[in-house]
From TrEMBL:
Originating species: Chitinivibrio alkaliphilus ACht1
Keywords from the UniProt entry: Phosphoprotein
A biological process from GO: phosphorelay signal transduction system
Domain Response regulatory: 2-118
Keyword presence, Phosphoprotein: yes
Gene3D superfamilies assigned to the protein according to its UniProt record, in alphabetical order: 3.40.50.2300
Membrane recorded as keyword: no
Alphabetized SMART domains for the sequence: REC
Protein's recorded name: Chemotaxis regulatory protein CheY
Modified residues (4-aspartylphosphate): 53
Amino acid sequence: MKVLLVDDSNTMRRIQANQLKQLGVDDVVQAENGKEALQKLSENMPIDVMLLDWNMPVMDGYECLKAVRGDSTYKNVRIFMCTSESEKSNVVQALKAGANNYIVKPFTPDVLKEKIGL
């Protein structure tokens, strides 16, 4: 499984990468904003899962989600919004835009395992 981690926090990306490693996922690509994520996505296909933060500079996660879902090349990429944004309206908005699921930070490796189906 190849995972694209998208978060503007280097610390959060490191934590998530370590959690994935604990779960047996070593093939991890990282990006620090939505614009960089789109570039990394095109350069590293096939990507199986994208863990996408909501609040980021340059291009936020919601805009990135809409861009990815607007390109059929990436129809098989499972996208999980991983964010501290826990308002129900945001969850609904992300799911309607094509997110496969929503994970509220902070989360444990067990939550990650359950949500992405490892």
